[in-house]
Amino acid sequence: MHLGRVRAMRLSVPVYVPSQRPGRLMALLAPALLCGAVLIGTMYQRILYSLPLEIMQFFFPALVGLGFGLLCAGVIEHGPCRNPLFGRALVVAAVLVMWATSWATALLLDAQAASPKLDASTLFGQVDLDIFTRWVEARYDAGWTNGRRSTKGFIVGLSWVAELAVMFVITAWATRSALQRCFCEPCQQWLDTRGVSCHGLTAADAAPLVEAGDLARLLELRPLEDGVPNMRVALMRHQCGACRQTTYLSVDEVHTVPTRSGYRDRRRNLLRNAVLPDALARRLDARFAEIDAPAPDAPPAMPAA
């Protein structure tokens, strides 16, 4: 594994740095992802044409972006891709391919509506830059009509930009975790993550320890009964389930906020993937063992039948 260093106020904390290897299966999975982007782009525009409301036409790109982001995350995971730059470039390229395919499909649908007797290959063979430009200008001027309300001009162009932006943002959000995971090179597997929450604490309690590089005192943080409501500091351990040779620590501040659909956690990262020395790793393992231990007054478990 490769180690980098985060410079702190008093000492330097070694952190995980990926090996920058694209992954042994990416030579197969990357082209497959791009082919999937073409297929999704083709179906996307055909479905978009059938949606009656403009608001649905903005929810649908977000839904497609989420599904496509999960697909990209699966490709990165199964690659396994440990090169974040390559992974991000692949995601950007795949989104652009999907978006370009959707526009090509829209052009084809309009051309088939104008010339229903011609097949797709003939129609595409007749398209050049001038025809494409005039088609975009025509769509820009024509806009769309929803009931009695007509949308044209600048708002149409703005909606196109928003559509692409929504796809990019949602896809990037869905793939962010996959690009930040730690990988065990000797065992060729992703590390498992487990966390413990210190309720009532905030970043003000953990940030000074992070800045000082004091990992030992970070592990000593405990829940505070009279602390800040709906706030907690999460200590997350990343460890290979096979060899358990190297353990990393991440620290987040978590703010639980009420929403219309329930409660949602807003996370703020304070420390990511710091290497835990063996002694501190054992201390954190002991803390998890305490959590897993049955309560003193709990009845003994019944033997299996």
Give short descriptive properties of this protein.
transmembrane helix; 2 domains; two-stranded antiparallel sheet; disordered N terminus; membrane; single chain; transmembrane; 305 residues; alpha+beta
Q: What would you note in describing this structure?
A:
With 305 residues, the protein is α+β, with helices and mostly antiparallel strands. It folds into two domains: 26-181, no CATH class; 185-292, no CATH class. It has helices at residues 26-50, 56-78, 84-114, 120-125, 129-142, 154-180, 203-212, 215-219, 278-292; strands at residues 2-7, 12-17, 144-146, 149-151, 183-184, 189-190, 192-199, 231-239, 247-259, 262-276. The strands form four sheets. The protein has a four-stranded antiparallel beta sheet with strand order 7-8-9-10. A two-stranded antiparallel sheet has the order 1-2. It has a two-stranded antiparallel ribbon with strand order 3-4. A hairpin with a 7-residue loop joins strand 8 (231-239) and strand 9 (247-259). It is elongated. The two termini are 45 Å apart. The model is unreliable at 1-11 (pLDDT under 50).
